Amino acid sequence: MPQLTWLITGCTSGLGETFARAILERGDKVIATTRGDVSRISSLAEAGAKTYSLDVTAPKAEIEEVVKKIYEEHGIDVLVNNAGYIEAGLCEEADLESYQTQFETNFFGVVKVTQAVLPYFRKKQDGTIIFVGSSGGIGGEPGAGPYCATKFALEGWYDCLKQETAHLNIKSVIFELGFFRTKIMDPNNIKFRSNPIADYDPIRNAVVQFVGQMNGKQPGDPKKAINIMIDVVKGEGVAEGKALPERLPLGSDCLATLRKKRVNDLAICNEWEDVIRSTNHDE
C-alpha cells in the first residue's frame, strides 16, 4: 500500500501518542497535533512526526486555518479523531458546565475537525476518517453521564456521515474501545465535578472506588489495539482480505458490553413485536 499521511488530534499522551509512534514505525507520515504549545509533543517531532498546535475546542474558523495549512504543506489521507477525555459525574449531580465542556471536546471538536478536513477529501474523492468511540457509547455506566452522552452522540453522527459520504469514496470507521491502559483515568486527567446528593452516596462512592482501582490496571493493551486499527485502515495484517467494518469493538470488556446490549435489544423486539407493530395506521 502507498505511504499515507495521518492527521491525529490529541497526541500529548495516551492513545494519540501511541498512535503516532506506531504509524511512524509502519513507514507512514504523521501530522501530530496538540492543544497549546507544540513543545508538549517535541518527542514526536524527534521521532519524525510533523507537529502543529490544534485545539479542537477553538472556533471553527481557526481549526479550518490550521487544517488548510497542514493540507497545503503535507496533504492528508487519514484523519484520526482521537482528542478526548472523561467528565465523570452522576447524571443529576453533574452540573450543566460538565456536560457542555465534555461535548465541546468529545463531540463538537470531532465535528469541527471532520468538517474542516472533508472539503479536501471531497475534492480528491478519497480519504479515511477514524472515530475513537467507546463501550460508553454502547451502554451507559453509572457515574459517566457526561462522557457516555458524548460517545452516544458520536455514534449517531458517525452513522449519518458514513452514509452521506460513501458515494464520494470517503471511508470511515468507528472503533469502540473498552478499558485500555492509558492515562485517561489518571486523577490528573479525569474530571469529577459533582454537586453531591445524599441519596446517591452509595453509587458515587462505588464509582470513585472503581476509578481508583481501575487506573493503571485496565485490561487492554493500547499498542495492540492501535496496531489493529492501523491494519484495518491499511487492509494489512489481521484485516488483510477483509472489508472495512462499519464499527469494530476492541477489548474483551467492550465485546461483553456490546453482546449484552444487543441480546437485550433483541429480546425486547421478540417479546414486544406484536405491540410494536400495532402502532401502524389500520389502512
From TrEMBL:
It holds the Pfam family adh_short. One of its GO terms (molecular function) is oxidoreductase activity. Belongs to the short-chain dehydrogenases/reductases (SDR) family. This is NAD(P)-binding protein. Gene3D superfamilies: NAD(P)-binding Rossmann-like Domain (3.40.50.720). InterPro entries: KR_dom (IPR057326), NAD(P)-bd_dom_sf (IPR036291), SDR_fam (IPR002347), SDR_oxidoreductase (IPR051911). The keyword Glycosyltransferase does not apply. Keywords: Oxidoreductase. Residues 4-160 form the Ketoreductase domain. It comes from the Eukaryota.
